[in-house]
Specification:
The complex is a heterodimer of chains A (328) and B (340).
Chain A (H helix, E strand, L loop, with lengths): L1 H8 L9 H11 L5 E4 L5 E5 L7 E7 L4 E7 L5 E6 L4 H4 L2 E5 L4 E6 L13 E4 L5 H7 L5 E4 L3 E3 L4 E4 L2 H17 L5 E7 L7 H10 L3 E9 L17 E6 L7 H14 L3 E5 L6 H6 L7 E9 L6 E4 H16 L1
Parallel strand pairs in A: 3-12, 3-13, 13-16, 14-15
Antiparallel strand pairs in A: 1-2, 2-12, 4-5, 4-9, 5-8, 6-7, 6-9, 7-8, 10-11, 11-17, 14-16, 16-17
Chain B lengths: L1 H6 L9 H11 L5 E4 L5 E5 L9 E7 L4 E7 L5 E6 L11 E4 L4 E6 L8 H4 L9 E3 L5 H7 L5 E4 L4 E3 L3 E4 L2 H14 L6 E7 L7 H6 L7 E9 L8 H5 L7 E4 L9 H14 L3 E4 L8 H4 L8 E8 L7 E4 H16 L5
Parallel strand pairs in B: 3-12, 3-13, 13-16, 14-15
Antiparallel strand pairs in B: 1-2, 2-12, 4-5, 4-9, 6-7, 6-9, 7-8, 10-11, 11-17, 14-16
Classes of the chains: A alpha+beta (328), B alpha+beta (340).
Chain lengths: 328, 340
């Protein structure tokens, strides 16, 4: 799973332009699913058929990665940008960013800009261009950039890298499809788009899939770092079973089924109560007439930074739990 | 001129009847199927007249405009009101308005500068501090003319001026409605459905239902959008789009990100046909596409806008050449069969 994760985390795929990640995932899951299609928004919908009397379960992990869109190129050749998804300036300054065509630049801010506010108008990307004309040969207005790829193994099976949110969820979903084998339930594993701007891809996909149950796989915050976020979730202490976040209150039946599956599979798990954020499950839950939904969360340090840290052990627990849950 | 007639009609969000009736009369002879859904959207479909590519393209423009609504009359005969849609309280003071279906004339007044304290001069008057004066001497007199819930529009006439510019209220988004009526006059090798939507200005509510049940291959919002090419604003970063520079093709806004292939297709088509265009990358605001794109399953969408100065005020200013460019680009896409 580490190799899969590395490939996914270092792939270019900003919110709204996830096609490259979808192509990679297509190749990875093709042998393990019966059908694959890409919808008009770019969601990759893969289907593993079930048997008579089974339920339809939708899984959702988002492919998109927070990034920047070029709003203007000024006369001196600096690209002005706006955030795509929730970007903290303090996490981004003087980082290298990359565009789809491989062009790199350094994200900087005008002198005197406050790194802690949400005003993006004083940010710019230094491409090294001498003037506007030169810059426009490299990129165009409307092009998207993401943090330059990072992937580093730390000790204790922790890994640090870009886009763990939510390529770690994608990796669990892929690994689950690999290990699942025959199931009574029909499994529709969706690799969604545009989660970071408001669960947009999952909104569309849930309508089209019309499942009996929805499960999102996404990262959550960790409270185990110095003066870290106030949440009783720790990296390396198991996959997290979400109780609620700002986008949904998980269906109690789904929570119970997840915890029972964890016990049966011997997967380490912890409960997660997140008082911020949202996941694709929030969109699935309220699709059509309502769909019982839940979330398996990967504890993640420094979410929405260029080095998000997760535990491979937690991801392994996630796969074990999910395989057991889907079989039942 | 259809656009001039459209802007003469009152259509504050939730009260689009006059605009709807006008549009129904215009499009019934042009489209094969015209219906009004339960939200009040007009949905007009014209089948392919030429050898069809099998594509079905949806266009969406909103009939409603921002305005005001009456809360009630005060003892002194002045009317309390609130905005409908996003209106800056700074733009309403001293404006002439028309209240209700009888178009009772009124003016929004404020304390004279002579009487204001230094502190008051620094403060923006909020809607609950402003009143509409219809010249009524007391509450009873006012209530003979207006009722709570009456809609109010800016009284702003059509003025053509300068280098091909026009000033009026409600150009956002009667330009889109006008474009769709013109489009329905043509014949194309694909099906086209025009949705004239309601309540866009209060949160894209009409569009939520307008695409229901339609099997479409792609959809466009035809909009009027914020041009800030005024004052000291420099570059697209501050100007957003420029009046007179052509139709704006949006990469993304606050509500939707354009389908990549559709966006590229529109940019290339504009280049190929020599249609003036500019890309819009400012991440704010939303259009009907924020609903159409994803609320009944996934749709490929893109937003094509006419740049509009002083949007959401009594005086919208647009350029005729941009209005024409929006039509030309949509027409070219449909004439090519709606493929991308």
């Amino acid at each position: 799973m580490k190799d899969t994760l590395k490939i996914l985390c270092t792939a270019y795929g900003p919110t709204g332009n996830e096609y490259n990640v979808a192509e990679i995932i297509k190749g990875m899951v093709a042998p393990y699913v019966d059908e694959m299609k890409m919808d008009a928004m770019g969601n990759l919908i893969t289907v593993k058929k079930g048997q008579e009397g089974g339920k339809k379960i939708m899984l959702a992990a988002h492919m998109d990665h927070i990034g920047f869109v070029v709003t203007d190129i000024d006369d001196k050749g600096f690209a002005r940008v706006h955030n795509v998804g929730g970007i903290r300036k303090a996490n981004s300054l003087y980082r290298r960013v990359v565009f789809e065509n491989g062009v790199s630049g350094i994200l900087a801010a005008e002198n005197g800009d406050d790194a802690n506010d949400r005003d993006m108008t004083k940010l710019f990307v230094d491409l090294g261009a001498a003037n506007k004309e030169e810059a426009e040969k490299m990129i165009r207005r409307g092009d998207f950039a993401v943090y330059a790829p990072e992937f580093t193994e730390l000790s204790n099976n922790l890994v640090a890298g870009t886009a763990m949110d939510d390529r770690a969820g994608c990796a669990i979903q892929i690994e689950t499809l690999k290990r699942l084998g025959e199931t009574k339930n029909e499994i529709v594993a969706v690799f969604t788009v545009q989660e970071e701007v408001g669960l947009r891809g999952a909104t569309a996909a849930a309508f089209d899939v019309a499942p009996d149950m929805g499960i999102a796989l996404d990262v959550t915050l960790c409270g185990d770092t110095p003066k870290g976020p106030k949440i009783a979730v720790k990296a390396g202490e198991g996959i997290a079973v979400k109780i609620l976040d700002n986008s949904l209150i998980c269906h109690p039946g789904v929570v119970k089924a997840m915890e029972e599956a964890a016990e049966r599979a011997g997967a380490k798990y912890q409960r997660e109560v997140l008082t911020a954020g949202g996941t694709d499950a929030g969109a699935i839950q309220r699709s059509r007439g309502g769909i019982p939904s839940g979330v398996l969360s990967i504890p993640c340090r420094y979410v929405h930074s260029p080095n998000e840290v997760v535990s491979l052990n937690d991801m392994e627990d996630g796969v074990k739990l999910l395989v057991e849950l889907l079989k039942a | 001129m259809v656009l001039k007639e459209l802007t003469s009609l009152r259509g504050v969000s939730g009260n689009e009847d006059a605009v709807r009736n006008y549009i129904l009369e215009k499009v019934k002879p042009l489209a094969d199927e015209v219906r009004v859904d339960r939200m009040g959207n007009v949905i007009a479909t014209k089948k392919a007249r030429l050898e069809s590519t099998g594509k079905h393209v949806m266009l969406s423009g909103h009939m409603d405009e921002v305005g005001l609504i009456i809360l009630g009359a005060n003892d002194n005969g002045l009317l309390s009101f609130r905005p409908v849609g996003g209106i800056d309280p700074r733009v309403v003071v001293s404006k002439r308005v028309l209240v209700g279906d009888d178009e009772v004339p009124g003016v929004i007044g404020a304390k004279a500068i002579h009487l204001q304290s230094a502190a008051e001069r620094q403060t923006v008057l909020q809607f609950d501090q402003l009143y509409i004066d219809i010249g009524a001497k007391d509450k009873a007199s006012a209530e003979r003319l207006v009722s709570p819930g009456d809609y109010v529009v800016f009284d702003s006439d059509w003025v053509e001026f300068g280098d091909g510019m026009v000033k009026c209220r409600a150009l956002d988004d009667r330009v889109g409605c006008n474009c769709m009526i013109s489009i329905l006059e043509g014949e194309y090798p694909c099906d086209v459905t025009c949705a004239f939507t309601v309540q866009e200005e209060t949160g894209c509510r009409g569009a939520h239902t307008a695409a229901w049940g339609l099997e479409i291959d792609c959809a466009f919002a035809l909009e009027g959008t914020t041009a800030n090419d005024i004052g000291m604003a420099k570059g697209y970063r501050e100007q957003v789009v420029r009046v007179g520079d052509g139709v704006a093709v949006s990469v993304m806004d606050g509500g939707s990100i354009a389908n990549r292939d559709l966006y590229r297709r529109m940019c290339e088509l504009a280049e190929e046909k020599g249609i003036a265009w500019q890309s819009k990358c400012y991440v704010a605001g939303a259009t009907d596409m924020s609903r159409v794109q994803r609320h009944n399953g996934a749709k490929a969408t893109c937003v094509l806008s006419v740049p509009c100065r002083y949007i959401h005020s009594a005086s919208n200013v647009c350029c005729f050449s941009d209005i024409d460019a929006q039509y030309q680009l949509v027409e070219a896409f449909l004439a090519a069969g709606g493929t991308f």
